[in-house]
DNA sequence: CCTAATTATGTCAACGTTTACCGTTTTGTC
DNA sequence: GACAAAACGGTAAACGTTGACATAATTAGG
């Protein structure tokens, strides 16, 4: 009888114990489908993301799992590539997955079409570091502009003036936000951004490597490179090595994300710590709070997490010969 | 009516079309809990693994997801640390998760207690690269001994004789298997393994770094290091740098796994490609074949995948001064 | 044109829980 | 010891599908 196992009131201790013993003896496990059916809950939380670096995915996942650990909720992973070009497909996938709620990482969290779909079906969702429509749904954010500003200021204050920039995938709004932060820092320092030193990557090592080579091979070789994630920053270091440049003496390189590779690279990367794990935890936390409360009115809908500049060995003042 | 939507026979085209239109208009989605209840299936596949490198996790996950992509099955991730010391807890977790089947990565796949539990509850499972009880359950394997043999032979054939070894976590049977392969190769070459040059790591960068420093600081500095995964191999390169040794001139380093870091490290690592993604795909494939067939008799229970030695720039013959 | 076969549609039990309800027993109070 | 109140245990409806079965409508064959 369900009352005994679920510690409901109005049941004697003796009976409760006997039932629990019998259940244990028979290795009885309640049927989750039946429970779901009656509770109108699947106790499944979805996590959708798009092909970024392994360390990012794992951080994201671990953050969410950390919050779910002692809950009934389970995490279903639903990676999906090229959301920008086919948001409805992802929407269908999510709606068919029978989820109670979904965590949307970039760039899916910035697809209005997708948000429309899942709102229409009343599927609760939390957005991790979105960059548009910040008033929609639960939002867990990092101020990308401020983060970009911080790292660019670091480079400029070291004295660099010819600064190369490797942008991330243009479909990720993070790329634009960080660039905007760079711009502000450059403006404040009275330095102009040289468009010929701005290259577009896609957050992968390989493309980052190609773009870095182009920057270093150009007429105005930069003395520093701002890469929009760590993988591309590591690629820039590899490219520098090809040109016989040592980091940070001949070229400073700064990354973004504080991923594992930024620690294990040589030299260790100056980077910006994105508290991905904490943000994912927070997103899961707020999502399940909303699910369990069965109300979505009161809680603050947006929460900002702080970035942190980690100055390591890959940045230094430009050499006098530079 | 379910007949119309599920394309069952005995329903007129006209009715079928009308029902489907109405369903689409109302954004109707069948309730998965009710379907699960009657089908006695949750259409959930679990994946459990233990805190290894991000790239390994992502490969594993992507392999499994690749197979599940166009199936009804969804993937639930269930990482779990320190299985060796508490296998029953993982067993309970898995049994309570309401899964149709589970993919077990190391070291969970080598816990007899765990296998006993999930067998008793008739939870189908596939084991990815297990090392003991190879006749239990569905097995997707790589011959670790052969792989260890291959990489050790490579190092020996370059002429190295003083070879340091950094083992992985002892609770992973892979560590023992690879070491056994090293032994065979050393025996064949008539070279003895110097126990003072064997250190025990745990597959992490940090511990690998510490162990590598100890090896390089000892009385008999090795001319080559065999690390049992790439993260520790990269750590060994960093340690070598601390001692003013360049790789591969003064020290050869070989890793294991062909993880992303092995490509992006400098110099790029000689390593052994473990077809993790393919094995995970295969494990998922065989598992769902078993689930869908509702029989577990006929298919071969074990399948071996091939390793591949990738010789890159981190290994070279020992310098004459060595 | 009638019967039989075929095809289409409607009905209802079943899946395994939870919860509300109702009847019974125990406990407490005067 | 009688009564009210509280505690307990049993029963049955409900959750949203599927699939077996029954019934109704159509078609084919004699």
Q: What does this entry look like structurally?
A:
The structure is a homodimer of 322-residue chains. Chain A is α/β, with parallel strands linked by helices and 322 residues long. Chain A has 3 domains: 1-30, no CATH class; 33-142 and 278-306, Rossmann fold; 144-274, Response regulator (Rossmann fold), CATH 3.40.50.2300. Helices cover 43% and strands 15% of the residues of chain A. In chain A, strand 8 (224-227), helix 10 and strand 9 form a beta-alpha-beta unit. In chain A, helix 4 packs parallel to helix 12 and helix 7 crosses helix 8 (173-189). The mean pLDDT of chain A is 90. Chains A and B meet through helix 3, helix 4, strand 2, helix 10 and helix 11 of A and helix 3, helix 4, strand 2, helix 10 and helix 11 of B. The first copy, chain A, binds a DNA duplex (30 and 30 nucleotides) through residues 1-3, 6, 8-12, 15, 30-40.
Examine the secondary-structure arrangement and name the CATH architecture of the largest domain in chain A: 3-Layer(aba) Sandwich
Oligomer: homodimer
Mean pLDDT of chain A: 90
Unreliable stretches covering 5 or more consecutive residues of chain A = none
Strand order of the largest sheet of chain A: 2-1-3-4-5-11
Count of discrete alpha- or pi-helical segments spanning 4 or more residues of chain A: 12
User: C-alpha Rg of chain A, in Å?
Assistant: 24 Å
Top-tier CATH class of the largest domain in chain A = Alpha Beta
CATH superfamily of the largest domain in chain A, by name, is Response regulator
Helix content of chain A: 40-55%
- The count of β-strands of chain A is 12
Tertiary shape of chain A: elongated
CATH topology of the largest domain in chain A: Rossmann fold
- The end-to-end span of chain A amounts to 79 Å
